[in-house]
Amino acid sequence: MAEHHHVMHVLSELRTAVPSAVPLFTKGGCHRLYLILRAIWPEAEAWYDSDHVITRIGDRYYDITGEVTPDRHQPLDLEPRIARDAFSWKPLKD
What we know:
Blueprint lengths: L1 H16 L3 H6 L3 H11 L4 E4 L4 E5 L2 E4 L2 E3 L5 E2 L4 H7 L8
Antiparallel strand pairs: 1-2, 1-5, 2-3, 3-4
């Protein structure tokens, strides 16, 4: 339970510190957020639904907005081509 509050606190601080965090990490940079969270929680896993990466930590899922419910998400490592390409994703321009 304490871990969940810590994740939520980190996400809240990130949104506060970076005013453009929500569009940045929902329009092309979602995999980068996973990498940030994994640096703090090494057990973090990337899950993907062909549109958006969310991060699983423990039994909960997160994106920059906070806790989310996975839809058609699967572990990113099940999609080797996507996993490889994800490291080169760039945020989309509005």
